[in-house]
């Protein structure tokens, strides 16, 4: 559950979000639609905790995870290392990390690509790596910032189906 009351976010003197109120129920899927520059990304970044300088009230029940529009992959890291980064905040042994990373790579059919770099991957493969890094922590709430915008219609549909499958399997909101 996410509850937002009178949320205002400013960039210097420019108001990106002005007194927004919104309630998002658990176990539902929502889309935030609006024209470019209307504050969609700012809202997602605020919910994800990337923006903390805001006014109003923001209540979030559960851990959130965000897939960025540009995917946020590090070109100098392998697929394995990019996914492992999703565990940085967690105290895991090396063996536990290895198992978690390998399990999610298998789940998303990326295990054969684990030693490749992002520049060696297709758009859909990069997308799956970003998803793997995000879901490895098993968040309760998954936020996507135009996460399929760079894909062709066939891959976009495949990624959307994969996300629904993951949502249902892992009980992600």
Automatic annotation (TrEMBL):
The keyword rRNA-binding does not apply. Gene3D superfamilies: P-loop containing nucleotide triphosphate hydrolases. One of its GO terms (molecular function) is ATP binding. Keywords: ATP-binding, Nucleotide-binding, Transport. The keyword Nuclease does not apply. Residues 2-172 form the ABC transporter domain. This is Aliphatic sulfonate ABC transporter. It comes from Clostridium sartagoforme AAU1.
């Amino acid at each position: 559950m996410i509850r937002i009351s009178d949320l205002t976010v400013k960039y210097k003197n420019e108001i990106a979000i002005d007194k927004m109120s919104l309630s998002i129920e658990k176990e539902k899927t929502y889309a935030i639609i609006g024209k470019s520059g209307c504050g969609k990304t700012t809202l997602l970044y605020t919910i994800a905790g990337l923006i903390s300088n805001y006014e109003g009230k923001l209540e979030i029940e559960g851990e959130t995870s965000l897939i960025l529009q540009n995917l946020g992959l590090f070109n100098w890291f392998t697929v394995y290392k990019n996914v492992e980064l999703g565990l940085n905040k967690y105290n895991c042994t090396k063996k536990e990390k290895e198992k978690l990373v390998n399990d999610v790579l298998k789940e998303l059919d990326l295990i054969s690509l684990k030693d490749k770099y992002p520049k060696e991957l297709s758009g859909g493969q990069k997308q799956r790596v970003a998803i793997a890094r995000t879901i490895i922590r098993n968040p309760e709430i998954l936020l996507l910032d135009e996460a399929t915008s760079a894909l062709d219609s066939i891959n976009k549909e495949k990624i959307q189906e994969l996300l629904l499958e993951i949502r249902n399997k892992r009980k992600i909101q």
